[in-house]
Amino acid sequence: MDLMALYFEDLKPGRVFKAGPITVDPTQASEFARQYDPQPFHLKEAAGAASVFGSLVISGWQTAAYSMRMLADSELAGIANGLVGLQIDKLMWHQPVQPGDVLSTEFDVMSRKQSRSKPGFGVVQLAWRTFNQRGELVMSLENAIWVAVRGEGQGPSHG
Amino acid sequence: MDLMALYFEDLKPGRVFKAGPITVDPTQASEFARQYDPQPFHLKEAAGAASVFGSLVISGWQTAAYSMRMLADSELAGIANGLVGLQIDKLMWHQPVQPGDVLSTEFDVMSRKQSRSKPGFGVVQLAWRTFNQRGELVMSLENAIWVAVRGEGQGPSHG
To answer: Closest Cα of chain B to A13: distance in Å?
Structure first.
């Protein structure tokens, strides 16, 4: 039994988990753009300058991927069954992110309820907020995840 | 003037754009997992087999990234101002995706309206549906994007 494991009972609404920082590496940014989002404003300075963004910016999907990495490196990685996403809503990119920016995240427990269809599990609603080095919100979303219920005989207090 | 450019007027509700296929490369899958979602069930066969998924599966964010790549390689890449996402809702992962799977996508124009706050632009709602080689839906989402209005004097018919 991992004493650090998190269960449904541990994720009380109002609890906040902070994660990061992580720096947007320019090489990783161009690799991501080439593989997954090869639009000119993600690849070339001049095309970025001429775009609606006014500068080279990273793919919004890479901002989401970096936020996932911070989640996976946070205390929330201790969720006993892993970070298993059910649904994402209200994913918004509020500010462009540039190579070299330094991102950090907050994960807030918004609400939770036990599952009827999947006994032993519950659904927890997390709000993700990703900020840059100036404290500006660059991305936010709401994420429903599966979380195992500790129940009887499984928790550290019974071990 | 690019004759292939797409404007708000071209994206009529009901229009469907098909894209792909793209194969989930095992090396790319492990690189993505190491950089952005290093959970054991994305990295190791044995951990995948022991997980809720029952096998090694790729990160859901990589499925989204591959879908973005198919979008960027589709006819929709002709949107005059680029593919600029405003918001994502109802992003769901319906089936696990494994290295070696072959993905394809459909992008449906659901609705559109001209912007009041940003003259010369409109908001178009796209539904993305990503399928595997067995025709099973693996991911879906709804995506609001900015699209420039052709207006007078800008379209090919005026050029």
So the answer is: 22
